[in-house]
Request: fold
Amino acid sequence: MSTKEKLIEKIQHIDDESILSDIIEMIDLELGIAKEFKLTDEQKISIDKGIKDADEGRLFSSEDVKKTTDQWFEGK
Reply:
């Protein structure tokens, strides 16, 4: 079964309209047909916080992030 077929099969089992809407937006963005991507206020606040953290030197290397996420996934 191809990746595309697996994705279609999984999507068919999703009933949450907000998740389906997000999937459509991502696909439209990838295909270059998205008119605009709207962020929630919470997302905007998180982005601003991340920019401030980066400006103030509070960063993680790619290696550190990979190690941390690998540990999270091993624990699940």
Remarks:
- The CA atoms of residues 39 and 45 lie 10 Å apart.
